[in-house]
Amino acid sequence: MNRKIAAVAAIATVLVASACSSSSSSSGGDKATLSKDGKGKKITVWLMQDAQKGWPEVVDAAKKQFTEQTGAEVDVQWQTWTNYTTKLDTALLSGNAPDALEIGNTQAAKYIEAGSFVDLTSVKSQFDNSDKWLDSVAASGQSADGSKTYAVPYYAGARVLIYRKDLFDAAGVTQAPTTIEELKAALTKVKAANANVPNFSALYMPGQNWYSAVSFGAGQFGVKGIIAKKDGDKWTGNLTDPKFIEGVKTWNDLQKEYSVGGTTTDEATQDAQMSKGNIAAIIGNGWEVSAVADPKTGDPALKDKLATIALPGLAAGTPTPAFLGGSDLAVPSKAANPGLGATFLQIYTNTAQQTALAKHAIPNAKNLVAAYKQADPANKATGEAAEGLTWFIPNSPLWSGADETALKNAFGAIAAGGDPATELKKAQETLVKDLNG
């Protein structure tokens, strides 16, 4: 059984089982409604413990407002990411799905393809700031062609340049670079100033860190249809587009000139590596600053020496596009109270709640990121990265770890001296075959 047949079979099982066991009050999973008829009812909402630990006051405010407007109570059931999709699959199969839930943005495609989420397209305009949602997180909640919305952006995280300000200052780089050319000039100085440090990387970029490589490709090609896009019923690849290859060559020049990260490793250990003192900069998630300076796994002495900026792009004020991770919110098609579930999400993601959430994480809309940046000076870099152009993986349930491996292998081979066009063509053939089943 090939991947596409297997995936369709699994999807069909979930749909049929959940349809047979759904309550008579179900919406049928076609079109969304926003209901305020909740007197005497209680809805169930699944949220990750990130909110319980990070912004419980936002959840409480949304619950209070929801009850005031609908008369219904809210039972928030806290979840963890471990085995979460297995738990959700079981709930769908047994007809016990919650009325609203959180889902990782890389997990959403599976459920969208299966028809497991209510189509929110018709009510999208009634969600605050829906015309300003962060590009990549919004895309993850849409159909593959972007024409329909099934999940609402919740919050996000972005990759940035994390660097040793003390090493940059010592090398005479006292102003953060604003373009790729300025970055190269800065790294050249940092490299020269640390020429006697064994295994020194001015910018640690291991060859198989495909997220960074694709970001540079997107800097030339653009973020629409990055890696692959869907034309009708078929996926076509963009890895061999000349503009994408041009961007990848920029990445390759940087890793060759400034990194000793090797060609067979990825970014998994870069925080621990940076804490050893022989790395001046990495490209990583904003939270990795804490990991580098962690007292147990890193070096706490580096805490006040680390700084972040959005990864510079071709022009000042235009960062290299970042991969934007995060979470979405959705309403299961066979929820007992889908209209109330959609209304809770509308309230939970309104301007007031998202502005409050911005004290803790990147909110879901570009016009609200300013509040996130103002909450802490350390948020400036990730905020600017999120406000800029961002990219996302092909929104298909057939995207898998095998596809990531194909990208890792291709960029590792390029880093080892392989021809970018040749290696990317190999990866593209694998990816397109996988995405088309």
Describe the structure.
The chain is an alpha/beta fold and 437 residues long. The chain has two domains: 42-157 and 324-386, Periplasmic binding protein-like II (D-Maltodextrin-Binding Protein, domain 2, 3-Layer(aba) Sandwich); 159-323 and 394-436, Periplasmic binding protein-like II (D-Maltodextrin-Binding Protein, domain 2). It contains 18 helices and ten strands. The chain has helices spanning 3-21, 49-54, 56-70, 84-94, 108-114, 135-140, 165-170, 180-193, 210-221, 242-258, 270-274, 288-292, 338-348, 351-357, 369-375, 380-387, 401-415, 420-435; strands at residues 42-48, 73-79, 100-104, 152-164, 228-231, 234-237, 281-285, 306-309, 322-330, 390-391. Strands 1, 2, 3, 4, 7, 8, 9 and 10 form an eight-stranded mixed β-sheet that branches. Helix 3 (56-70) runs antiparallel to helix 14 (351-357). The longest helix is centred in the N-terminal third of the chain and has 19 residues, at 3-21. The protein is globular. It starts with a helix and ends with a helix. 52% of the residues are buried. The model is unreliable at 1-29 (pLDDT under 50). Pfam families: SBP_bac_1. One of its GO terms (molecular function) is maltose binding. Residues 1-19 form the signal peptide.
